[in-house]
Request: fold
Amino acid sequence: MVYNIWKDPEEDMERTAIDHYFDDLVGNGVMRDYHDLIIEGLISQEAIKIPLMKELQKSYDVDMNNVGNINYFQQQFTERMKQFGFNLGKDIRQTKC
Reply:
């Protein structure tokens, strides 16, 4: 069970933990480093997500076997990567023939 160190309502504790986890990664520049590795083709998204999920489960005691938590984690990962102008899995360029 996640400890409620942020004084959030009980039902939002795991999502809040995920948010704070990503806030820390972005604030420390870790997400930017991961973004650069993905762009350069040196590592895949899954190779980054799996260790992050394990660390989140270990550090914040978030149940990462819960489908809702996994989906929220995926959503937050994508949102944070978009901050760096990287749209995962989609080509956002407009091409004219």
